[in-house]
Amino acid sequence: MRIDIITIFPEFFSVLDVSLVGKARQSGLIDLRVHNLRDHTHDRHHSVDDTPYGGGAGMVMKPEPWGDAIDAILTDVHPGAEPPDASVMPETTATDASPLLIFPSPAGDLFTQAMARELAEESNLIFGCGRYEGIDQRVFDHFEKDGRVRLVSLGDYVLNGGEVAVMAMIEAVGRLIPGVVGNPESLVEESHEDGLLEYPSYTKPAAWRGLDVPSVLLSGNHGAVAAWRREQQFLRTARVRPDLLPPAN
Ligand code: 6GU
Q1: Model ipTM?
Q2: Cα of 167 from ligand 1 centre, angstroms
Q3: Quick one: a GO biological-process term for this protein (predicted)?
Q4: Ligand 1 center to residue 150 CA distance, Å?
Q5: Using CA positions, which residue lies closest to atom 8 of ligand 1?
Q6: Checking phi first, is residue 84 left (phi over 0); if not, alpha (psi -120 to 50) or beta?
Q7: Which of 27, 33, 164, 237 lies 20 to 30 Å from 135, alpha-carbon distance?
Q8: How far is CA 175 from CA 36, 37, 39, 78, 127, in A?
């Protein structure tokens, strides 16, 4: 999978050199490229934001640097294709082969494990990290005409910019790419994979600071262990996240 990130803070993403995603990059499973939005400005001050039309607090990111930065990536991904320009392009329709543009935004669709699984099927993801009060709406409207654009939110809280959200999404998506996680079985027993939270885990020693490991886990009875874990998943989900339980329960 090729992943392009556009940001005014490229140094944020140096952490993607380490851990699982770092290994996946070294082995070639993930081709990750970080682009500085300011490289696509043409004024002396490399400005990427301006005051909002209609007034209001804060600044809005200007459309031109975004347009140029995204055009450059689209051209690099598909060298034959012209950058999208409605006036010269023949009628085209977005296909699954076209890169998916993702903008982290508290106004977007909620990012879930199901969405992570969908994104892991893509061959090209482009993440655009907004800052300030957001990006000029015409950037989304323009690239939606000939391509695929998604606004995605991590949850109901506000981050200063999309960078941390993009890192979370890349970690969630990256580990679902075949070969990135060494033992694929470890993927299926995680929280959210079966719609429930995961069961509590224990390792040696069997007793620690007066707390004993539940005896069923020491019993050697695999059926009893599986039943206990399933029950724990339901109990924990009912207690912490009742919204995840199917309506029948
Ligand atoms: Cl994806 N971006 C920003 N800027 N804030 C957020 C978010 C994303 N998800 C929750 N808050």
Answers
A1: 0.91
A2: 11
A3: methylation
A4: 13
A5: 105
A6: beta
A7: 33
A8: 25, 27, 31, 26, 17
Phi first, then psi, for residue 175 (nearest 5°) are: -70, -10
130 Cα nearest atom in ligand 1: 4
- Looking from the CA of residue 160, the nearest atom of ligand 1 is 4
H-helix segments, the chain: 19-26, 63-77, 113-119, 137-146, 163-174, 185-188, 222-240
Residue of 184, 214, 219 lying closest to 199 (CA atoms): 214
Atom of ligand 1 nearest to the CA of 111: 1
Peptide bond just before 246 cis, omega within 30 deg: no
Q: Return the best residue to mutate from 103, 154, 163 for the ligand 1 pocket (most ligand atoms within 8 A of CB).
A: 154
Question: Which residues does the chain have with pLDDT short of 70?
Answer: 82-96, 249
- Spatial distance between the Cα atoms of 179 and 3, rounded to a whole number of angstroms: 17
Residue 81 confidence (pLDDT) = 75
The pLDDT assigned to 188 comes to 80
Residue 155 CA, closest ligand 1 atom number: 10
Q: What is the pTM of this model?
A: 0.91
Compute the distance from residue 129 Cα to the ligand 1 centre, in Å. 10
Q: Identity (one letter) of the amino acid at 135?
A: I
Contact 149, 143 (CB under 8 A): yes
* 156 annotated to a ligand binding site: yes
Helix (H) or strand (E) holding 128: strand 124-128
Quote the pLDDT of residue 185. 84
Q: Give me the pLDDT at residue 49, please.
A: 97
